[in-house]
Design brief:
There is one protein chain. This protein folds into three domains: 200 residues, no CATH class; 95 residues, PDZ domain (Pdz3 Domain, Roll); 79 residues, PDZ domain (Pdz3 Domain). Helices cover 39% and strands 19% of the residues. Strands 12, 13, 14, 15, 16 and 17 form a six-stranded antiparallel beta sheet that branches. Strands 2-3-1-4 form a four-stranded mixed beta sheet, covered by helices on one side. A four-stranded antiparallel beta sheet has the order 8-7-9-10. The two termini are 44 Å apart.
Length: 477
């Protein structure tokens, strides 16, 4: 019951954050319109027919049923009645200048950016967690994978990916190995590595896993894992209490596997690869306990049933030494700058014809809500969401300044044209263009939302029933 109420609390927080972000953006338009003397018909958070509304001093305030943003209905600006509903006719109201229109349009992104700065000051004071795998050494290479075929080996130190220096395996701001591989264009990845004191260049292909049509496309992978310690977290017995291979061999939680059959282990994944190289036969496992090295004999076993493809050793890995989390305190300008850099790289990558990252990799309202929900559940969850709050508001400000007719940047561009022409653009033309673009934008968000939902649906060949209950072959098998 406590978990259920905790879930409801987190869900309420996620929805509240969404509404705050949208409300502040639209509040900018509203206050600027009042300042410049424009008529305000409605102030609504979310699109669609209102599920709640109330009129105060001639302004209808409401909450729509489509969670894709919000609007302030301004008849003297360009109307979108197909989306916003019927507004007061602009013919009944005095005209406004192009400057007024530009100020009102710019006020929304300005308020979003201001909210981002306020949150950034809070992050500066409270700090934000930075998770990273601080290793740029390869810990394991998938057998017959692209990296293996290219000649990359466990123990290689990666210095650059596609000519860009990398700090560590994951967790940087576009300067980590995982992200640089994801952003690669073309049909290969160039690595600059250090091996035995020598710097070499290696050209590797990559794999992109096929996904079902309702899911997002997978991203490029070359088949490498980072160099992190292979520390045993816990032993896995089966449902009957029969011990697994590792526990039978004398392994205990806290042991660090450092070698298999005399070959150095650079990562947990490397243990499985080395055991597979030995055809899953009895192997000598060197484990570090304190300052001593113990040698154990162990034979992997395949659990009973057809769910499991390969033999297993019966342990869960500890995350000790795998990830590092530190609280950092970048100043507000650094945070805004990093958010802008993230936006620029995202837009550039998604719009590139040679990129393997497409619009289907973007997150819609459900995906963003899920991200916030998961962030709240992690350690330092509130700090994580606060840092995400900065990024999201910067994104909202930048996206709304794009020169597309339905966005604030489009309003500014049209006002500039009006200023140059010396007279307003045709009202009917503007209404059609604005409404059409609004419907396209809503359709696009619905498309992204289908991917948010589709990623949660099991694909073809997935075992919806989940793993069978674990049963080890008996002692002496």
């Amino acid at each position: 019951m406590i978990d259920f109420f905790y879930f409801l609390l987190l869900l309420f927080v996620v929805i509240a954050i969404f509404n705050i972000i949208i409300f502040v953006h639209e509040l900018g338009h509203f206050l600027a319109a009042r300042w410049r003397g424009l008529q305000v018909d409605r102030f609504q958070v979310w699109f669609g027919k209102p599920i709640w509304k109330k009129e105060i001093n001639g302004v209808q305030y409401g909450l729509g049923w489509l969670p894709f943003g919000g609007f302030v209905a301004l008849p003297q600006m360009v109307t979108m009645e197909s989306v916003e509903g019927e507004n007061r006719s602009a013919d009944e109201l005095p005209p406004v200048t192009p400057l007024d229109k530009m100020i009102v349009a710019f006020a929304g992104p300005f308020f979003s950016l201001s909210l981002a700065f306020l949150a950034a000051f809070a992050v500066w004071g409270l700090g934000k967690p930075q998770d990273a795998i601080k290793s740029n050494v390869i810990g394991a290479v998938v057998k017959d994978g692209p990296a293996d075929k290219a000649g990359l080996k466990a123990g290689d130190k990666i210095l650059k990916v596609e000519g860009e220096p990398v700090k560590w395996f994951a967790g940087g701001l576009f300067d980590d190995i995982r992200t640089r591989i994801m952003l690669t264009e073309g049909d290969g990845v160039t690595f600059e590595i250090e091996r035995d004191g020598e710097v070499q260049t290696v050209e590797s292909k990559f794999d992109i896993e096929k996904t079902d049509w309702w899911k997002r496309r997978a991203l490029p992978q070359v088949g490498i894992a980072p160099n992190v310690p292979a520390i045993v977290g816990e032993m896995i017995s089966d449902k009957n209490g029969v011990k697994g291979p590792a526990e039978r061999a004398g392994m205990t939680p806290g042991d660090e596997i450092v070698a298999v059959n005399g070959k150095t282990v650079y990562s947990p994944a490397g243990v499985g690869f080395l055991l597979g190289e030995n055809d899953w036969k009895e192997s000598e496992i060197s484990v570090k306990r304190g300052d001593e090295i113990a040698k154990l004999q162990m034979t992997p076993l395949k659990p009973v049933g057809d769910f499991y493809e390969d033999p297993m050793i019966g342990i869960r890995w500890s995350d000790q030494g795998m990830f590092s989390t530190e609280i950092i305190r970048p100043n507000p300008l650094q945070q805004i700058g990093n958010s802008l850099k993230t936006m620029w790289i995202t837009i550039k990558t998604v719009s590139s014809p040679n990129s393997h990252v497409g619009v289907d990799q973007l997150a819609g309202p459900i995906g963003i809500a899920k991200t916030k929900f998961l962030l709240l559940k992690e350690d330092h969850g509130w700090l994580r969401v606060l840092a995400f709050f900065v990024l999201f508001n910067v994104n909202l400000a930048v996206l709304n300044m794009l020169p597309l007719p339905v966005l604030d940047g489009g309003h500014i561009v049209m006002a500039i044209f009006e200023w140059i022409r010396g007279k307003p653009l045709p009202v009917k033309f503007l209404e059609v263009v604005q409404s059409a673009c609004a419907l396209v934008l809503i359709g696009f968000m619905l498309f992204i939302t289908t991917k948010d939902i589709g990623d949660e649906i099991p694909g073809k060949g997935s075992k919806a029933e989940g793993p069978q209950e674990l049963v080890w072959p008996g002692e002496g098998s």
